[in-house]
Amino acid sequence: GLTFAKQGSLPKLPIPDLGNSLKQVLMSLESCTRPAEFKQIKIAAEEFENGEGKVCQKILVESTGSNKQWIKSALPNYGRLYSRHEAPILSTGIVAPFIFDLWPPKKDSQLDRAAMVIDLALEFWLLIRKETLRPVMDPKGHQICMNQFRKLFSAARIPGKPCDATFTLFHTVSDQEDTPRHIVVIYRGQIFTVVVVDSHDVPIRLLSIQANLEHIVYSVDGGFVEMGPGVGSLTSMNRDDWSCTRVKLMQTDENNRECLMVIEEAIFVLSLDAVVSHNTDLLPHEAIFGDGCNRWYDKSLNFYVYKNGVVTINANTSLVDGSMLAILLHYMHLRILEDTEKWDDDVVQSLSKTAIASSASGIQLQFTIEPEVLESIEVAQMHFSNLAASVEIATCKFEEYEANAFSSREINTDAFAHMVIHLAFFTMYFRIASIGSRVSLKRFYHGRHEIMSTTTNEMAQWVRIMRDPKADAVIKKESFWKAEKRHRELLKDNCSGQGCHNHMAALRVIAQDNLAETPRLFQDDCIPWGERFEIYSASLGVGCTSYVAVLPNSTKGYGLGYFVANTKIIYCVSSWKEESSKSAKLFAFSLYNTLSFLKEFIYSL
User: Fold this and answer.
1) Which residue range(s) make up the domain with 5?
2) Phi first, then psi: what are they for 504, rounded to 5°?
3) pTM over 0.85
4) Quick one: CA dihedral 136, 137, 143, 147, positive or negative?
């Protein structure tokens, strides 16, 4: 088939040079660390490079050198499967791009838009199933690895101890194996399964999809089904607790085991939420949290459709990266644009009561709940509410730049996005931040992502100059282009497999497993590796108009999703409310002011 035909020709991910990785680490820390502390880190790095580092690098090369993807074997927890954190914390929330043009909030549009979401997602499913989707190219013209499309549908994360497992039951036609043909719909905590593809790989018609949704809502609202306690909330628990509870569920009876299998094998989950939010700034929070009873966080792909027809998506990042969902959403966006006449109010009006009655086939999944499991559900729901309430998410939207303001000046938009973040942080805190950004390794065989530090000496110098009232315009411009160029170079290196974050994480694991004593460089009092970045940022790609919400990867930091697309710039900021030094709302405000402050400066370049 066309989709996966060139997978074998994708290049092998290179193992970075030890000296270069250590140089990157030092560069990222120099401008945001006290001089005395940095001196000690530099000594530790030199000791490691000339001593234990050579041993660890040799082990890494010998144990993974023959693999096309060394990260998989060197970092067994690369997919976060060892993490015991609650699934919402590790998930990625995405606000669908349709909200900005074709599908703004609209009263009573939930079911017709939900039906369209299912219909278009199944179109994309069929492209992968028949392998007719052409290989995707990145902005630089490199073919990306398509492997994760095999994990986009009918994939799930299964809780376990000491680590979780993942599986996918999706198969292409050429695999000569059958594949699941149903989806799961959750409404008011009640879980239904709907068969949406027949045995000949033909998806059911749009009107039949909507009829199924109508029937589900009618059955629940009318009290025609037995109301369960909201089993989905269990997937938001600490992974060890959910693992134990899942075992108890399966041991209760065979029906529970079958219900879990139906959910985990489903093509995807679609949740119909009761929220009617007139403030779209709240959508990123809904995309990560929302109603815990109306979620199943262990699925790779979850669509959430709200009362006013707005759509968000939740991705389980242990299975699939947000960039792959961005491709799906881009396809759906284009299809809606192509068929604008098809998606009008007549769709709803054309559904007669007869059609609804005759085509309804949603089957409710009813679990047998023992008192002990019921208690776990109640605890999970309480904990989920507290967890959702502990996170503050704010959005900065800026649309005052002229069209092509960046492309006409050959400004790298990712560089500009991070220069704004650095300047906004410095303005707010009067110091340089350690900022990590998730960048794609998709041009390599089974590549996923690298974490690139955007904190450079050039960036720090520009930030300080921009806030220096004595600095003249010429110096500001020269400093800007130096920082922009350095970011561009770093981005190229990291996307080419020459980043340091994965490499240092692998060497740290090797050192802990093979050396008698942990090297000074990897001790937390030297570098707090677990909370290295004060701001953890992510984007879905150049020009992508889906914006993403991510939570901080440190207890005292910010999470930050962003995109820059022509005239529209959006930042989605998150923070923990209990951390008094951080405020997502204030930082979003600082980002907006910084964008406004830089407007005339950009035009002067």
Assistant:
1) 1-74+500-529
2) -70, -35
3) yes
4) negative
